[in-house]
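Hey, I was hoping to borrow your eyes for a little while. No rush at all, and the record is pasted right below:
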Amino acid sequence: MIDDVLVPTATDYGLAKEYKYLKSSIDEFLAGKELEKLALDSRLSYARHYEIGGGFMGNFVATLAQC
């Protein structure tokens, strides 16, 4: 969708440079399940990633265990 819709549309408005970085930037982030595993492996007691925006964004919620 980014390469097929967003970047071409941005290019039409003279904003190609501002949007071309998105795909590589998104690829650098951990997926939701990977983020949850990393948090739980780091001794957080609860970790949940909620996808929003069709998977382009997310909300990560984590809880630190009581000592």
Notes: The chain has a mean pLDDT of 87.
